[in-house]
Specification:
Blueprint (H helix, E strand, L loop, with lengths): L11 H10 L2 H9 L3 H8 L4 H14 L4 H20 L16
Length: about 100
């Protein structure tokens, strides 16, 4: 089962594609409940201005219920799976996968 935390294993190019398809409010809510490593994984794919705005949105949320965070994370995983089904991103690669150009 693919979880929100598993996005840490997804390449930055694919995270960038995913981030572009997300509602920024959902992303702010979902990241509110994650560790710094996963937050930074998303932040590295964004412009400094976008990161600033997202951090500000997260602060403005204040305390949030864990079920709201889980709901936002589930919505993002669903979008990620949809993008994978469309061939736009790769969520999990096999250890022996080779990409040919």
């Amino acid at each position: 089962m693919f979880t929100f935390e598993d996005l840490l294993q997804v390449g930055e190019a694919h995270i960038r594609e995913l981030t572009g398809a997300l509602d920024k409010k959902d992303l702010a809510m979902a990241l509110k409940g994650t560790d710094e490593g996963l937050k930074n994984h998303f932040f590295r794919t964004m412009s400094s201005r976008a990161v600033e705005m997202l951090k500000e949105d997260m602060e403005l949320l204040g305390p949030v219920r864990s079920k709201e965070v889980t709901k936002a994370q589930s919505a993002i995983v669903a979008i990620a799976r949809q993008l994978e089904a469309e061939g736009k991103i790769v969520l999990k690669g096999e250890a022996n996968d080779e990409f040919l150009v």
